[in-house]
């Protein structure tokens, strides 16, 4: 695979979700969970989506149950939780493995491109690609979505 747009996920409602449908946009892919200490970051992710979507950023939430089983719910429950609790409107995938042998190919590819920094060590790990689908940066879970560090990287990815 040569760009992020070569990958496909399954959406939270079960439909195909080819990243090609976001071609020309910067992508912030975040592995998320509903029962994590970082779950309140949904608020910041939604804020980023509102602030930057019209400029070409798509935030993509990727529910994952690989970190202390903090996303045990079914996709319909996850979607309802995110909509009701955090007013999430950005696209989300179905539950996905983000590490290990069964990780989605996108996560293997990002690690090949960016090295160890792209390997999710916990929920709310953030992976950023620019408008051409080229990997730009990875951000650990503790980096707040609305931080100057992440916003600066998004500005560069949108340039």
What's the structural blueprint in terms of helices and strands?
Elements: E1 8-10, E2 16-18, E3 26-32, H1 41-52, E4 57-63, H2 75-86, H3 105-114, E5 126-129, E6 135-139, H4 148-158
Parallel strand pairs: 3-4
Antiparallel strand pairs: 1-2, 3-5, 5-6
How would you characterize this protein structure?
The chain has 159 residues and is of the alpha+beta class. It has one domain (4-158): Glutaredoxin, CATH 3.40.30.10. It has four helices and six strands; from the N terminus they run E-E-E-H-E-H-H-E-E-H. The strands form two sheets. The chain has a four-stranded mixed beta sheet, sandwiched between helices. The chain has a two-stranded antiparallel ribbon with strand order 1-2. A hairpin with a 5-residue loop joins strand 1 and strand 2. It is globular and about 35 Å long. The chain starts with 7 loop residues before the first strand and ends with a helix.
Features:
Glutaredoxin; 6 strands; four-stranded mixed sheet; two-stranded antiparallel ribbon; alpha+beta; 159 residues
